[in-house]
């Protein structure tokens, strides 16, 4: 090896040595502490107490493995919610598809999406956003949509953090998912987001297989094209909104058991937490409170996205844990 190259290699090794050392320390911490990103306190202890109670044989609260089911909201609970990744995906898809639909340039809410007119988009409300989602998610097979979503996730960047959305999962919640799985739990995602979008990354990011993802859906039809192969085809008709009271309905429909633990962050998760924690035996509910403007975003009662108002009022009487990002988490993302 030439001296200059040898020197460059040496400098490179010196530059990455602190990173490797930090990674080694973190890996060591995870082997000795299942929740190293959670600070000591009431929230962390409530998780550990619940797990000890339901997994210890002989405990009056012991729960057999088949009944150990936990459900998690996605946006704002497992990864960043502001801005919502799927909304950004929809807006990018409108721009990508616009050349095929010239009328969009003069038709709302497509015109606002193309021009970045956030005020008009906000005024369009849920109906307008649903219209955009239907137009940009339909006319594909699930396999085709998976490729589109996966390619977008590989290149899209969060406007504040300038990192991939899949890098902005919450490290404390990833640790919690792993701890539950190692304790015999099956983890499900129950999200208001589109099910096919979340299935594009749930396995690789959360270690949750696509069959354990429940979300909002558009109508899917079985087709057997002439001379082709049988396929499922997604059409621009809303099928089911998996939010609010829809979440318990979806849990009953697709899981068939009442979970014993539920994790959310907004009033859209309220009915899910109520349903899960009102069952018999030991139960657990947790709300992630976004109160860390420095490391993420601070929002709750007045937010247009991820509003947490009634949930904060009901948490105490319902004995739900409210986990403060600012006070309970010593680490926000896997890569700081």
What does this structure look like?
The chain starts with a helix and ends in an 8-residue tail after the last helix. The protein is globular. It contains 13 helices and 7 strands. Helix 3 crosses helix 5. This is HAD family hydrolase. It comes from Teichococcus globiformis.
* General shape: globular
Numbering strands along the chain, what is their spatial order in the largest sheet? 4-3-2-1-5-6-7
Assigned CATH class of the largest domain: Alpha Beta
Tally of alpha and pi helices? 13
Rounded Rg: 22 Å
CATH architecture of the largest domain: 3-Layer(aba) Sandwich
What percentage of amino acids are in beta strands? 5-15%
Percent helix, as a range, is 40-55%
InterPro entries: HAD-like_sf, HAD_sf
GO molecular function: hydrolase activity
Organism: Teichococcus globiformis
Protein name: HAD family hydrolase
């Amino acid at each position: 090896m030439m001296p200059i190259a040898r020197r460059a290699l040496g400098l490179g090794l010196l530059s990455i040595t602190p990173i490797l050392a930090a990674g080694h320390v973190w890996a060591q911490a995870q082997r000795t502490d299942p929740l190293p990103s959670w600070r000591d306190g009431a929230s962390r202890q409530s998780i550990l107490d619940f797990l000890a109670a339901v997994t210890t044989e002989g405990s009056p609260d012991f729960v057999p493995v088949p009944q150990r089911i936990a459900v998690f909201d996605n946006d704002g609970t497992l990864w960043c919610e502001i801005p919502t990744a799927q909304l950004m995906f929809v807006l990018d898809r409108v721009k990508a598809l616009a050349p095929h639909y010239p009328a969009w340039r003069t038709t709302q809410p497509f015109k606002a999406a193309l021009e970045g007119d956030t005020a008009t988009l906000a005024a369009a409300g849920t109906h307008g956003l649903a219209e955009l989602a239907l137009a940009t998610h339909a006319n594909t097979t699930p396999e085709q949509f998976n490729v589109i979503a996966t390619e977008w996730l590989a290149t899209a960047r969060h406007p504040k953090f300038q990192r991939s959305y899949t890098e902005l999962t919450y490290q404390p919640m990833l640790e919690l998912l792993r701890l539950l799985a190692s304790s015999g739990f099956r983890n499900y995602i129950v999200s208001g987001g589109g099910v096919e979008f979340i299935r594009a990354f749930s396995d690789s990011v959360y270690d949750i297989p696509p069959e354990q993802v429940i979300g909002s859906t558009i109508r899917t039809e079985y087709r057997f094209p002439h001379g082709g192969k049988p396929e499922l085809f997604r059409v621009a008709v809303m099928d089911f909104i998996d939010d609010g009271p829809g979440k318990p309905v979806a849990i009953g429909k697709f899981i068939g058991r009442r979970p014993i633990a539920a994790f959310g962050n907004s009033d859209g998760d309220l009915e899910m937490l109520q349903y899960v924690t009102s069952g018999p035996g030991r139960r657990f509910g947790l709300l992630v409170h976004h109160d860390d403007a420095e490391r993420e975003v601070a929002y709750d009662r007045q937010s247009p996205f991820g509003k947490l108002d009634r949930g904060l009022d009901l948490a105490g009487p319902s004995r739900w844990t409210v986990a403060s990002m600012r006070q309970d988490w010593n680490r926000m993302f896997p890569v700081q």
